[in-house]
Amino acid sequence: MNIKMVDLGGQYLKIKDEIDTSIQHVINTTQFISGAKVKEFAKNLANFHSVNNAITCANGTDALQISFMALDLKPLDEVIVPAFTYVATAEVIALLGLTPVLVDVDWDTFNIDVSKIEEAITPRTKAIVPVHLFGQCANMCEIMRIANKYNLYVIEDNAQSIGAVYTPSGSGYLKESAKSGTIGTIGCTSFFPSKNLGAYGDGGAITTNDDSLAKKLNCIANHGQEVKYHHSMVGCNSRLDTIQAAVLDIKLNYLNDYISSRQKAAQFYLEELKDLEGIELPVTAPYSTHVYHQFTIKVKDGKRDALKAFLAEREIPTMIYYPLPLQDQKAYMSIAKVAGGKDAKDGADLLSNSTNLAKCVLSLPMHTELTEEQLNYICKGIKAFYR
Ligand SMILES: *Cc1c(COP(=O)(O)O)cnc(C)c1O
Questions:
Q1: For the whole model, what pTM was predicted?
Q2: Enclosing H/E stretch for 81
Q3: CB neighbour class for 186 (10 Å; exposed up to 12, middle 13-18, buried from 19)
Q4: How much distance in Å is there from the Cα of 26 to the middle of ligand 1?
């Protein structure tokens, strides 16, 4: 049946002519760096988000790093991040000499537990990084309320949730629905090939409504120069190359279709697997749409690895995102802290959901090309395990 976690080949074949023409055009012009397509794509990306500015860069990790550089944080300033996330979120914070402070996540949504943020805030706290994990938004109303109260920046790690829509509820801080990545001070996204809007190589972008911040972000991504060979701040070299922009500009037109395909596949799983008592299915929060970057189930009774192996025998691939929370990653055990100032490795009691999720999560195949036949086969495989 040849089921893949992600099927980039099948997706390409459907738009091959458009993509090939667009790439060939870049080669013909030889404007491989900073070609016209880069600006065009940035503009279209800003429009897609209904945001004033989109700044492209080399990858999602750089997007986060450039964002922190632009906020002029000082060494030892603290940044609050969820403990259950991809490492890049905390990595750039540590690289800049800032301190990542880990907060546990909500069991149902995998996103930062907003009820535990305030206890982690100290006079050194400067920012919160909500990660919109697996395809749905964190509880942004609460996060923005807390950020306002303590005067903190909010940098949304939107690498997995581009196109998700947040609808305000509760605190009344926000009035209207908004795309993920446009609610905080800055939003960061990734165009890693397997992300929901994937390039044919690396790519990333930053979104913000703050025009002066946008100028600064642009400047930092370009060696800190506003005028060629005149460097007004320390920057880095982080560019989206023109061929990637040419690919992304075409795929952006299909992003809403891609999201629908993922949602359709998710509906199939949710319906087919709803009666299985051995697993917990993904939960969508009332305040967000879900764009299903991953379809991640929780496997009960310590059977995750056995189910994974059982499915692998039937040539059904699955992945564990993520096998370790940040407090259990060697590089971050002592660099990262928890509420109260303890090292992350000594804060396990504050991070129990993250610890336990890492032991039971299993992500099923999720991409835009899954057929009903394939989905059926996957679900049958999972049911067979529990028979
Ligand atoms: C993919 C990802 C990143 C990093 O993006 P790259 O383009 O691979 O650098 C950051 N945060 C999260 C949550 C991600 O999933």
A1: 0.97
A2: strand 78-82
A3: buried
A4: 26
Q: Which of 288, 360, 286, 289 lies closest to 320 in space, CA to CA?
A: 360
| Torsion over CA: 299, 301, 307, 308 (sign) | positive
Closest residue by CA, ligand 1 atom 14: 159
Ligand 1 neighbours by CB, cut-off 6 Å: 59-61, 85-86, 88-89, 131, 157, 159-160, 190, 192, 202, 204
Contacts (Cβ under 8 Å, ≥6 apart) of 269: 281, 295, 364, 375, 378, 379
**132 pLDDT above the threshold of 70:** yes
The domains located in the chain, with CATH, are 8-252 (3.40.640.10), 255-385 (3.90.1150.10)
CA–CA separation, 364 vs 5, rounded Å?
7
Q: Is the pLDDT of residue 171 over 70?
A: no
Residue 25's CB is within 10 A of a number of other CB atoms, namely: 16
